[in-house]
Amino acid sequence: MMNARQQRAWCHVGDVLVPGHAPLPKYSETRAVELIPRLLAAGHPDDASAISLVVQCLRVVPKPLLAMLLHLVAAASRLRGAPGGPFRLLELGLRGVVLSSYYAGLDAADGESRIHGHLGYHISCHTGTDTSA
Amino acid sequence: MQPSRIPRYDYVIVGSGAGGSPLACYLAAAGKRVLLIEAGRAWQSGQYPDNEFDASLQLMWNGGVEPSSDGAVALLRGRALGGGTVVNQCLLDRFDEVALQSWAQRSGIDAFSLAGMQRHYDVTEQHLSLEMIREQDWNGNARLYVDGFEQLGYGWAPLRRGQRACDVHRGNDCIRCLGGCPRDAKQSMPVTFLPLARQHGIEIITECEIDGLVHGAQGVTLYGRHQGQRVQYHGAHAVLAAGSLGSTRILLNSGLGDSLPALGHGFYCHPQFVTFGVYDRIIDAHRGSFQAVKSDDPRFRAAGFKLENVFVGPMGAAYLVPGFGRQHLAAMAEYRHLACIEVAVRDVTPGRISLQKNGRLKVDKKIGAEERRRARAGLKVIRDIYRATGARRVIESPVQIGLHLMGGCAQGTQRAHSVVNPEFAVHGMPRLHVMDGSLFPDAPGINPSLTIMALAHRAAEALLGGTVAPVVATAPRIQESA
Ligand SMILES: Cc1cc2nc3c(=O)[nH]c(=O)nc-3n(C[C@H](O)[C@H](O)[C@H](O)COP(=O)(O)OP(=O)(O)OC[C@H]3O[C@@H](n4cnc5c(N)ncnc54)[C@H](O)[C@@H]3O)c2cc1C
Known about the structure:
- By secondary structure, chain A is mainly alpha-helical.
- In chain A, 58% of the residues lie in helices and 0% in strands.
- In chain B, 28% of the residues lie in helices and 22% in strands.
- By secondary structure, chain B is of the alpha+beta class.
- In chain B, helix 1 runs parallel beside helix 13 (449-464) and helix 6 crosses helix 12 (369-388).
- The longest helix of chain B is centred in the last third of the chain and has 20 residues, at 369-388.
- Chains A and B meet through helix 2, helix 4, helix 5 and helix 6 of A and helix 2, helix 10 and helix 11 of B.
């Protein structure tokens, strides 16, 4: 479970990574943040604590500055070998979690994902009895 | 001897993937008492998650991705009854002479040859339904791939997949199978070897993670956790089939690193460099048989790469498309206009699997200069294909993916360079065996899982000391009504 403060912190970072671009909504306008605890729980507890701490710290960084910081992290993550390592892992922790929760397709209570709808992503698999996606 | 120490099983097998399940099946059919232990859970085909998010979380280790120590490669491995075969694409190719010759050279095992492996492939394939993907089932991505190959004069071939009646013409989308096939069409272990093994009496324990083992004169004791409880199992023999990372981890955690100098060395993963082409027209690369054709060009083989016609769901695509913000959203909004081709590199720079002080797995895997050279050669061909077929833009992912996890417990004749002997026993431990992708002496540059299954047949013959025939289903028992 995440408390409201932690949710706000993830939405703050999420809105920089996914600021919305019509018709795709921005991160905090979806229910994506609700998926993050499950995502973190599936990984190693040390990673979950580390990334949660980073996100709490980033909560106080103004969005334009945060965007700049994240661009720097992305650039540094392209450094080969060990020097780029921490930045790649940070990218995986922040970008990986935010994008996975946003594009999961679980953003709507009725099961009809708005985000997948906008992408045009529908798949089907007809089993013997049902014909659902 | 205390009664509890008497080995209960002839064989305890850890891991139910491409190596563990076939071996369990052959041993049980030969009358052996077999226990199969799996860390993941068992699924009915109708219960597999119906979305990418839950599939990642519930069917994969670490919630989907395990990064190498410097984050250069994102490693994926299945965690479910059936292992990687539940989440894989089930493309099943035999190895060629190039791959087997290299293995023979590295391992000192002459049987690694086309002739030596043929019987093992033949028997394995008798348990599987194998189909070539037909042209009428191609989607936009496959058509574009073939168009590009033909314009540029490169060789391609239809893919051979383990599948039965996918009914793509009825509108089925096989991308769903990456989260477990809901119609039992994909030839995963729960559809092929496991039902046979069950008929021949194997016992299965799922959601049980083995942490270590003790090898003794009478047998092997394995210890681990089953749904939170500490447990121990005893077998006259134990077989580690927990995959490259899993089996290596168990051996390292059992303190065998010092006595087995090659343990954890020689890790390979066929790193994949993913690209997207953006087109004005709709490609719908995620529909139908989303992977239908492959490169089949001796020049690529000689250059150490192949080009894969592939695609991913929105979560995967978002992770692979670089950047963030509005540009990233704009790229994702064109999801239906994206084509995808990746370079899968036959890697030559060995990685290393070890344990951190806190017992956590650490995988050092560098993308070396030679891998980068091979990737560059493949990426150039891909850019040419996209250009020839009218792509408006090419997106190259900075993330490298490793789906074929191989090595760590290499098989060979010499203890200095290998962990497992030609008879599939760990050097110096006659009752402990390994049978999975960790045995690979190097990277073949070809999809590994059919060969892992074929090695399981070879291992069964080594353990049983004779020829092993294909396993047939026992006649269904007629239930008497009450
Ligand atoms: C997305 C994806 C697509 C792929 N596509 C293809 C393809 O098209 N063709 C191909 O040939 N290969 C493909 N592969 C690779 C292929 O699936 C693997 O190479 C193959 O499954 C490896 O077999 P294995 O027996 O070594 O290990 P696995 O199949 O991974 O089985 C190991 C099992 O051991 C279990 N285990 C691990 N540790 C423990 C423990 N401590 N205790 C108990 N159980 C444990 C795991 O949960 C797992 O179920 C793909 C892989 C992925 C992830």
